Structures are given as structure tokens and as C-alpha cells.
Amino acid sequence: MPMMEPWDEQAEPSRMRRGAQSVAFAALIGFGLVACSLKVGLPAGFGAAGRALGEGAAEAEAVPVAAVMLAAQQEIPTVDECSTYFGTVIPERMTVVDLSAPSPKKSECKFGYCGPNNFVHYPGHGRHCKFPGPPFGCHRYAKTTYTEACPVSSFSDLTFGFDSGKAFTDEGILKACAAAVESTEMHCWSKPGPELEPCEC
User: Fold this and answer.
1) Contacts of 101 (CB under 8 A, 6+ apart)
2) What spatial distance separates the first Cα and last Cα of the chain, rounded to whole Å?
3) Helix (H/G/I), strand (E/B), else coil: 162
4) Strands 113-114 and 117-122
5) The pLDDT of residue 24
6) CB under 8 Å to 86, separation ≥6 — which residues?
7) Separation between Cα atoms, residue 198 and residue 192, nearest integer Å
8) What is the pLDDT of residue 151?
9) What is the pLDDT of residues 136-179, one digit of tens each?
10) pLDDT band at residue 8, thresholds of 50, 70 and 90?
11) E strand or H helix at 42, and its extent?
């Protein structure tokens, strides 16, 4: 199976909305609205939404906001796509946390954080996730499976991004369900070049 374009986990700060309602999603919608009101097109670099809106004012005016929203949502990876990197991800039973963000080394920093920190790639709910995108070194991604003793409500307030609320342990386990862990898997990825590569955990 060909490797998919990785999602750079450090390219966005931790203040992301739950699930598919991410800041990136909202930003694309906002740019679409601005483009329509100002009669200008979006840059081609804004992916499907940018291509849909085009470069001309007439094209920008003609694109409904719903189309911009749909294009943005389609660019967010799904849990099925994330299986390439983390194996099967089951909503309301699993979480995926990078234990090495932004770097395994304390001396390496990016976006206001010096490693290692927890970065949530799948918060246990919804159909969307984040691909690995390690900026430094070999990152360890802990996929934890919880038993039914872990209430579904335990995942509801979790979000993507840096675990600033310290909801997870240093091992990537949800503290609220630490007594309900069924299993933990470690998946390790690095990005020495343009493509992600497996690395020694």
C-alpha cells in the first residue's frame, strides 16, 4: 500500500476543536467567506478548497460555503487512513498519543514546546485522526486499547494536539481510564527526508 502524505503534528498548535471541527477546518471556511466577500480567489496552496474556489473573483463568488466546508472536511485524515501508521483504530475504545513531541530530546524545541511532550493523534472519539509528522528524531506513538470499564464519556472532552491539560500519563495512557487498559502498542516513525520511515522504538 503506498504511503500517504503525513500530517505534520507540529504544524498546528494544540488549541484545536474536537474531531473534524479543527482550527484548520474553520480557517478554510473563513478564507472561503473572505474570498467571496472581497471578490478574490484563494491561493492554490489551500488544497481542494483553494482549487474549488479558483483564482478569479467570478469563480470565488460562485462557490457555495457548503462546498468549501465539504472540501476542507475531506482533507482531514480518517481513522481508516491512519491505520497505515498506527494499525486499526477503534473509536471509543482507543487513543493514540505521540510521546516524543516535538522531539525526543529536551534540547530541541518547536512551536513553543521543548521535547518530549504528549501530542494526541486520536482522542478516542470521532472518525478523524492525525498522521505522524515528527520534526525531530524517532517518535513513539502509543496506541492504547481500553476495556468497557472505561466509560465513553471519558473521551468526550479530549482534543487533538499537545496534551496541555495533562490528561495522559507519560506512557500515553488516559489517566481517567488507567485502571481499564486492555493493551498498549508502540508504533515508531521518523521523517529524515520527504517521506515517513519506521524507526527503532
Assistant:
1) 9, 10, 113, 115, 116, 117, 118, 119, 134, 139, 162
2) 23
3) strand
4) unpaired
5) 42
6) 96, 121, 122, 129, 141, 143, 185, 187
7) 10
8) 96
9) 999 999 999 999 999 999 999 999 999 999 999 999 999 999 99
10) low
11) none
> Rounded to an integer, what distance in angstroms lies between the CA atom of residue 168 and that of residue 175?
5
Q: Which three cell numbers stand for residue 98?
A: 505521540
The torsion of the CA quartet 46, 47, 49, 52, rounded to 10 degrees, works out to 110
Residue 105: is its pLDDT beyond 70? yes
Grid-cell match 494536539, residue found: 161
- Measure Cα distances from 55 to 43, 51, 73, 115, 159 in Å: 7, 8, 21, 40, 34
Closest CA to 110 of 128, 98, 125: 98
3-class DSSP state of 180: helix
| Cα distances (Å, whole numbers) of residue 139 to 4, 115, 129, 136, 191 | 18, 10, 17, 8, 9
pLDDT in tens, 183-200: 999 999 999 888 999 999
